[in-house]
Amino acid sequence: MEKPSPSNSFITLCLGINLCSSxxxxxxxxxxxxxxxxxxxxxxxxxxIMTSLGLEICRRLNIFSPKSLPIKSVLPLxxxxxxxxxxxxxxxxxxxxxxxQLAKVMxxxxxxxxxxxxxxxxxxxxxxxxxxxxxxxxILNSCYDVKFxxxxxxxxxxxxxxxxxxxVWVSTKQKEFQVNSMQLLYYQAPLSCILxxxxxxxxxxxxxxxxxxxxxxxxxxxxxxxxxxxAFSVNLSIFWxxxxxxxxxxxxxxxxxxxxxxxxxxxxxxxxxxxNQTFGVAMTLFGIILYTHFKLEEQxxxxxLTKV
Length: 308
Hints:
Elements: H1 8-36, H2 40-60, H3 71-94, H4 97-105, H5 107-118, H6 125-129, H7 131-142, H8 150-177, H9 181-203, H10 218-244, H11 247-268, H12 275-307
Helix pairs in contact: 1-10, 1-11, 2-9, 2-10, 3-8, 3-9, 4-7, 5-8, 5-11, 7-12, 8-10, 9-10, 10-11, 11-12
């Protein structure tokens, strides 16, 4: 029996939860990095530990019932997640922030290509064209800081490819296994956590200064736990959004979060916001509004056709 489609109001609520929690976690993580020097990949591992614990609590409260899945089926999803973490971090380490942001925006067209050629999914031309102002907006935001080098470009390209594949699989695996977001994340979160624990020593200290097992202050632990709690909301809403809408829609939310983070950094941390960045934010938001309008128009047309 096919499950009923979620209402637009419920989708909007979940998008709002994801937006608020994602922006919150960015500032919590930035606080950890700036004030405590907390290691990046290690924090990702903490996030998935908290997500796993949160899902286990939900299971015990009968909020969802786990569905038995073979580990080998979930492993590709967990591996692409780890690849996404590793390559995006290596991209950030070997590129300027502007180049890193420019590479990230390429995820959306990459997803379109993967879904079109490998999953036979078609998108209207007007939907594809909304990517143009969004990409131009990101370029305006980062053009002052775009510099290319061979190693950085390789890492950025691999990061875009693996991230795109991960997001596509988050959608397709839910349909393939006939599971909901909680049921799939219940397996992926602990498996990803184990894989990240294996790669941490290659990128960050473990027992030395700045490592996970150094004696952190109570303030750092408190912010870390808060970040992990919010990460549970972020991870769960990501799976829900992609599973019930599409990876492209989730990326549009991501672009909106980028604008919100930029504006939040200006108002909260007094980060400089140049005129070209202001125009970039406006252009990106314009593309997002166009995409939302076309998707709602498409949904209305599909509902009318269904009734007929």
